[in-house]
Each structure stands twice: as C-alpha cells, then as structure tokens.
Write a structure and sequence with these properties.
Length: 431
Amino acid sequence: MSEQKNEKGALVPRLRFPEFREAGEWEDVPIESILEVRDERRVPSTAAPLYSLTIESGITEKTDRYNREFLVRDAGNKKYKLVEPKDIVYNPSNLRWGAINYSQLSHSVVVSPIYEVLSLGDNSENYLEFIACSVMRDQQIRRFITKAQGTLVERIAVKIEDFLSTRLPVPTTRAEQQKIADCLSSLDELIAAESQKLTTLKTHKKGLMQQLFPREGETVPRLRFPEFREAGEWENKSLGEVCDVLQGYGFPEALQGRTKGKYPFCKVSDISRAVAENGGILVEAANYVGDDELSKLRAKPIPPGTTVFAKIGEALRLNRRAFVQTECLIDNNAVGLKAIHGCADDYFVYLLSQLIDLNKHCGGAVPSVNKSTLEAIEVVVPKPKEQKQIAASLSSLDDLITAQTQKIAALKTHKKGLMQQLFPVLDEVQP
C-alpha cells in the first residue's frame, strides 16, 4: 500500500493500494442505494436463540436471560426480528461505535424489535465486509450525528429514514472494494482466532473454579491442594463476615471531565471497560479527582485490592467484577467488597464474588442490591491460608487472560487506525 497526498476535501483515502492510486475519487452515495431494510423478515414459528448488540462484543447471544419458552411465545407474536448471516444490525436509539455491526454467524438468530436489520439485497457488486466497516467507522458515525435526534454524549439516536439517507463514500470499482474488504477481513480473522484463545482460557478458568470451590449446598470442593485435603469443611458465613461493603459517592457534573489526577473516579462504564479490555483489572478511569475534590465530596477512597461492580440497573445483571489496583473512588451506582484482614484474602474475595449471581438477590422494577442485602449473602470459605493458595493459582491464569485481552484490544486499535487510512477523511466533506 502507498500513502497518497490529496487535495483538501477530496474524497480519496490517505492510504491506497498501488493499483488504485490513479483510480480517482470515491463516490459519495446514499446508504439506501446500497442497503435495504428487512422489514418483512420476521421470526419463524419455532424457537431461535435471542441475540443483542453490545458495545464490546458486537452481536452476542442472550439466552442467559431469555429462555427458549420465552422465545417461542414472542416468536409467535412476531415481536422479534430475524437476522440472517451477513445482515447488518444497528440500534436506532443508540448508534455509536460498537452499536452497529454485522452478523458473522453461520446461522439465523433473533434480535429485539428495537433494532433495525438491513441487507445488501440485490447489490451483489458491493462487498459486505467493506460496507459494514464503512458504516461502523468513527467518521461515518459523525455524519450520522448531524441527523441525530436528542444527541447525548453517550447516546446517538438516528431514525431509519435518516440512517438510509446519510451518504457513504465507496470506491468506483468493485476490485478496490474487494481489496479493502480482504485486508480488513484478514485482520478480523486474526482477531477472531485470538478471541477464541481468550474464550478457551476463560472456559478453563470457569471449569477450574467449579473444581476449586464447593458446589452450591456443599462445603468441600472436588479439587483441593494436597496440603489442605485433611483441613476439613469450609465454613458457612455471611458475606459481611468475610469482607466490608464499601459504598460509592455521587459525582456532580461540575467535577467531571478531568482526565488526569490523583484518584480515578470510576463509573460503571469504567468497570465494564476494565472487564472488556483489561481482564477485569481496574487501574484507570475516564474521570479523575484530586484531594480538593475529595474534600468537597467528603469521600473516602476505595483501597487497592477491592472488588467493584454495578449495584443497580441492567449493568447489575451482567455480573461483571473488576479488581482495583490503585486508590480510587466509585460512583453511587457501584459498590466495593474489601476483604476483612485476617478473615479473607483480597483476590479470593474477587474470585468468590464472580460465583455470586446478583440476579438472585436483586428486587424491584429496576434491579438493585444494597449494603445489607450484600452483607447477608451466604458463602462458604476456607481458612485464609487455603484462600491464598487458591488465589495464587487462579491469579496466574487471570494474568494470562488479561494479557490475551490486551492483545485483542491492541489488534482492534490497529484495525481502527488502519480503517482511518483506508477510507477518505470526511471532516471536510458534506454529509
């Protein structure tokens, strides 16, 4: 590939394959000339797995929350939309990077009626991978923002008619589309292969934890280190006897926006990002505060070694846990667990918390748990020495998971940077 210098505003990418350097400018065409809405495509009468669109993972299965009977019932009412392999899906109430993707699955799935499902239809001259990457890139998202309704920092609502009327730059030749698609597809294949390695590591950890921790209703694990085989049963305790429950603080908007400082101020989104991009290790946040802000908030920092997670809303249902590596604050939508000295090991508490399904302990129209609810949760724990041995064994595996997660994140960053070079700059091109 060669770097190409372009006139200001020209619809030409900065990085172009040599055989297309003289191919001229790309065309700027409305999306509706390429993609069509699958309005008529509905769920078959038989059950199908329910999927959703997530920021971190694209189109993923949600059968952990919706059982097959639920799907059969609502499939009959035709409430859910069918997604065929290679269809493009986007969320019209929250279109941002990651909230639009295409199905790389080999089978049909179902998505909520909130999503819009589009396909290439008869436009066989266009390559899906190219079109999907084109509509997903940051600069194209900024084009959608110009037509957004009620745009917020983290939510971009774009109706289907506005989505379809937005213009999209495409090469004039099918061959250049194919070349770009092949280049990005090879990166996708590498990311998929590394992601499979990550899945294997996580599956191994899950299986090992099932062996190293007692089953529900039991007090002896199936797998035990030799020196503890005669140590007897684990003890039944409440979570409040094992660790302190640490509350978060309200974060006034006036104090937000600082990207550097002494204390990271962690929101639920920071916890989710730590899980998605850093294997659950929390070392940074999008916002920071100093000692002056700490005094204004009358807040006490969360110490290193604390396990933090969401305590309210849909984020609670995801059961994501992060392990804090530095003094920080958490907002009042999150909560922390800090091992009581002499009773528990910090990393063991982090592992133990991953076995607690908060969905079983939350109530109300909006799922939530409070301090007293968490403290009352029953757990079984061994003596501190055995806790440390389990923690040491699994922390080495978590290190591998973290390294693999970071490798995948680096590949995705590389792909994003490459896309910025392979597609024209749109900042000075009219939408």
